[in-house]
Specification:
Two copies of one chain form a homodimer. By secondary structure, chain A is of the alpha+beta class. Chain A has helices at residues 6-16, 33-48, 90-105, 107-112, 131-136, 142-147, 157-164, 192-195, 234-252, 289-309, 329-343, 357-361, 388-407; strands at residues 21-22, 25-26, 52-55, 61-64, 71-77, 114-120, 181-187, 200-206, 208-217, 221-222, 258-267, 273-274, 277-286, 313-322, 325-326, 347-352, 367-372. The first copy, chain A, is globular. The two termini of chain A are 15 Å apart.
């Protein structure tokens, strides 16, 4: 069995934490100076592990081996949310690096095949969500890259790639037959494992999500001189729809459905003016495509009803839609067997409520995901953390599962 | 009878419109370079009218006469909302100037007394709401001025006064016995006069208003990985309270009550995060103090209920509270008689849903207000406008009423 070096793994995780350190977390959006530096550092570690490092035309980092034989692609993303956590993404990348080393150092494992680590570009959408994995499976075209800009400051992606020295490089694409599977480990980002005292989650499905922008058109007026009966208050229309959504969605939800209004904006947004316009960003997620369809129908119906009722005109615009993606059954079984070996019943199968590069890669390649607990369920925040022994355990379980997959 | 010179009045209104012109409106917040320039221009016109111009320590402009005898104070404010209208405020100031000239030019009127024009500082709250009129009646202390900052860019008020050259000047205060009354004309800022085809409004009462900031404390979480049952979504708590307010307030409202949520903010305000905090700015207005109390009680009760119900903690903070202010009965009668003379039935008594300097000055001095129609009811917007003949008519009605008040 390949043996994870826990000390080396934790040391590398803590070293890469320095690139953009923010309090106990990290600020390392894709192509920020810290991100670019961290990708060069990762390339050096990949070379030390006996692989050829390649940073491609969008900034994804690959460790490539010219050895023939079976290969697995193992990784995640090393970019972070603004002022994000120190594990979200990069833990899975360092697992890939550590697995590559562990397999290389173990004669039996080495004979089975090669682990190729990967760090995808921009999973967190500083420019384009899932940029690296979507580019890899050919889901992104050059025009999309040319048109993309930083959500933060509007810098063109092409300019940022130029500055990083990645512009003009080829984009590495999926090669049929090169890898037997893709494995990704990640912190759970929720509180289920901790709550149930489990140490390993075997992901069954990554949820699908629908994201919408809902716009309310009313009439801007003076808040003192406009009688209630003459108002077309876009804010009132918005809060009423939100309440209707809460009631209707709670009635038709499945056991795993979640829905969220993340942003509300009233225009002009000052105390003494009746809002003439309002806007909300709304999303829901579920592992079951039928439930997603049910929600989609309900939303369209609620908006149409409310718009018809007046006095504001309401329109809904779909911003994005992803379908639920099942993880490969054999990979799930391998992860489960490995987990059972190490923690007996301390594991569970579970869906992922968050999106991951694995849902993209799975369109072309058998894929599986492993979760380890998030302390307090916290993520997308600098205070995100996981116990060191859980981090080491997760890597060993992933290594064992990788061995099984390469063997079969 | 003193005779308004309509051409001169409109020419002056159009001239002062140049200070901060924005599209067909004006951007002239208190103590902006355009505002300071406009106050110097006004001082020159006041001197030409045979009065001594004084700009005081907060920027209010007074026209002072040393002649003994009866005097009226007539004006409004000449600062504007950001990108505001060309009449809101300044029309009443130019009325004051024109009345001063008309009375001075008419021997009989001149014998009755003097019109002293005024332009109050900062009615629109660039630094401190009703700064000029509150300073005049002694409702403001130096410490409040020292601590005030621009709501726009945080500049200290003292620094802006220094830059304008007004710092260190005395603040002109109310002198008992100096004026028989204060008259203020203003555009209606609503659509009632236009809708009823009336040309003059005689203000009975200026509404009282209560303004609140309501804060919701929940728990920030990942919108994909946090099950609905574990959420403490501050945004959901906010929209639910808004709906509860709509229902309860509609049930207990008087015929004139208005209530408005002008601003909503969710924190962090991004699509995939359950808002951990939310905030809304809420206000209501009514001419009847009993109804204001009823609303205040209902709001406190609704918030307490919702906070008790959970899962978010809700607190309400009062930002300001004004009591309804009745206009002087004899001044109302004088305005009505003058209106009747010019337009027969084309006038009505009405309350003011917006706040005005007259509600402040009325605490010390008999006060009255006259409204003229707003086209389409629009104000606090650069497109605000009023027909030229209504502007001239309003000034003549005000002059006639002033004559009556000085005579009695």
């Amino acid at each position: 069995m390949p043996k994870i070096d826990g000390k080396r793994l934790l040391a590398d995780l803590n070293r890469i934490r320095d690139f953009g350190r923010y309090k106990t977390g990290v600020h390392r959006p894709h192509l920020s100076p810290q991100d670019v530096e961290s990708r060069r550092w990762l390339s050096d570690r990949i070379r030390e592990a006996g692989l050829e490092p390649v940073i491609d035309g969008v900034g994804s980092v690959f460790g490539r081996s010219s050895r023939p034989g079976a290969k697995l692609l193992v990784g995640s993303h090393s970019d972070t949310q603004p002022n994000g956590g120190w594990l979200d993404g990069v833990m899975g990348v360092i697992y890939g690096l550590e697995l590559a080393r562990a397999f290389n150092e173990d004669a039996q494992a080495r004979a089975l095949g090669v682990i190729e680590p990967v760090s995808w570009a921009d999973e967190e959408s500083a420019y384009l969500s899932f940029l690296g994995s979507r580019s890899y499976i050919g889901e992104i075209v050059d025009a999309e890259i040319s048109g993309a800009r930083s959500r933060d400051d509007g810098t063109p992606l092409t300019e940022a790639l130029e500055r990083a020295g990645f512009a003009g490089r080829p984009r590495i694409q999926f090669e049929p037959g090169r890898h037997k599977a893709y494995l990704e480990a990640h912190i759970e980002q929720g509180g289920v494992l901790e709550h149930e005292k489990k140490r390993i989650g075997v992901v069954t499905t990554i949820v699908g999500s629908h994201q919408y922008r809902i716009v309310f058109e009313g009439q801007q007026n003076h808040a003192g001189t406009t009688p209630m009966r003459l108002r077309r208050d876009a804010g009132v229309a918005l809060t009423r729809l939100c309440t209707d959504i809460e009631t209707r969605f709670a009635a038709i939800a499945g056991p795993h459905t979640v829905w969220t209004t993340g942003k509300i904006q009233l225009t002009p947004g000052v105390p003494s003016i009746v809002p003439g316009e309002a806007e909300m960003l709304f999303q829901y997620r579920d592992p079951d495509p039928n439930i997603l369809t049910r929600f989609s129908d309900a939303l369209v119906e609620l908006v149409a009803e409310a718009s018809r009722r007046g006095p504001c005109r309401i329109t809904v615009e779909r911003r994005s839609r992803s379908t639920p993606m099942a993880m490969d059954a054999a990979v799930q079984d391998a992860l489960e067997a490995a987990a059972r070996r190490h923690v007996k019943d301390g594991w569970r199968r579970m869906h992922s409520g968050a999106g991951h590069d694995a849902q993209i890669v799975a369109k072309k390649l058998r894929a599986g995901m492993l979760f380890i607990p998030s302390i307090g369920g916290v993520s997308h925040h600098w205070s995100e953390d996981t116990a060191a022994e859980d981090i080491v355990l997760g890597a060993q379980v992933l290594a064992d599962a990788a061995e099984t997959i390469l063997r079969n």
